[in-house]
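Before the break, one more example. Copy the sequence into your notebook; we will annotate it together after we see the structure.
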Amino acid sequence: MSEELEFKWVWKVPDLRTVKQPETISPDDFIDLVERIDNENVDPLIAMRNQAALWMTYGSCFRAVEVSQWKVKEALYPDGSLVHLTRLRADATKGKYPALAPIVINEQRDYVNQWLDCRVKHRIMLGENKGEYRGLDPESHVFLSFHHGRWKHFSLTRKISKGNEYFVATAVQNLLTKLYKDYGYSKSSSHTGRHSMARLAQKLLKRKDLNTDVT
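Here is what the structure looks like once it is written out:
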């Protein structure tokens, strides 16, 4: 099998027969939530990071671990433009398998671009080559933690299940879940964006099937 085919999609429509479905949020409610994150009680840089991170869970169906491990060189072309289809390396995904994810929603692209521009403006993890990746360090992660006055990569938590070692992004899971809860979605979690987009796609596909003429 060629390398080009050895990728899975991060975005995947769930089976209609799933017994228990998590709480979902409509596109309009999601956009309203994201806009409310930018307020006088939140540092503008933190708000911008949180808005862009939430959009990646919604528009690209990122899991928390993918949000935490996504690198600048996977988000941008060397000329600094934001990709429309990102490739995630195996060690950055839940299943430890290279994955593809779209970044095509205009609002989502705007927030991610604004966050990256903020990083450049505030000189957060710049690289050695100012002419590539907007001057950012291509190996740095897109979304960073701000702790004790410093920006750094989010940490991962090591776990073992059935003899297999894996890592979870507990800090990002908690951050995303807290954002939903703080802005009125008490039953939501870090998975809400991903499941909401998948459910929306599921409905659209079902509607298309119903409207398709069989010849």
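The first strand starts at residue 8 and ends at 9. The chain has seven helices and seven strands. Try to locate both features in your own notes.
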